[in-house]
Specification:
By secondary structure, the chain is of the alpha+beta class. It contains four helices and five strands; from the N terminus they run ααββαβββα. The longest helix has 18 residues. The relative contact order is 0.15.
């Protein structure tokens, strides 16, 4: 059996050069053949499968009221409350554990924060979502442009966060129901 000790500097140098891609031909540094097995690249791993249907496969609901749409949305993201903000910063609907004073101030400020974030670096494109973590709560929201150039913000309180897939499902549902909701 051929073994190499960890103190063999020449073998370590050869291995290091091979691993870093500086040497493509084994043994070209004159240190001899390495006693270590060189792994070859394998085929691409199989695509991950999920039990969750693709976004296009999800059936769309026919919501006629904002509270129905927002109730469905807050269940999707496991949130305690949800609200919708129009392009002018006015809250147009809410559902869940809504505080007595509503979300008017919060909705206007969230809309403002998102517009300011757009101005930070225009090369990055427009902001799609934001999550603000406070000491006692989390506020997450995303903007969906259901009409040309006008973004409606859908926001969630105490949400666990949402994936791109969930965000896109909610946005797709909003686009489907939008003309009836207004």
């Amino acid at each position: 059996m051929n073994t190499a000790g960890s103190s063999d500097v020449d073998i370590a140098r050869v291995l290091s050069r091979r691993l870093s891609g500086l040497e493509t031909e084994p043994g070209s540094t004159g240190a001899g053949d390495s006693p270590y097995l060189r792994f070859q690249a394998s085929a691409d791993p199989p695509p991950e499968t999920t039990d969750e249907p693709a976004d296009e496969d999800q059936p769309l609901n026919d919501f006629t009221r904002w509270d129905e749409f927002l109730g469905w949305s807050l269940n999707k993201v496991r949130s305690s409350a949800a609200f919708a903000v129009d392009p002018q910063g006015f809250v147009i609907g809410s559902s869940g554990n809504v505080p007595e004073d509503g979300f008017e101030g919060t909705g206007a400020e969230l809309s403002y924060v998102m517009s300011q974030a757009d101005a930070m670096n225009p090369e990055m494109g427009s902001l799609r979502s934001v999550s603000l973590e406070f000491t006692n709560r989390r506020l997450s929201g995303f903007r969906s442009e259901v009409t040309e150039g006008e973004g409606f913000v859908i926001a969630f309180v105490d949400a666990e966060g949402f994936s791109d897939l969930t965000r896109d499902q909610i946005a797709r549902q909003l686009e489907h129901s939008f003309s009836v909701l207004l």
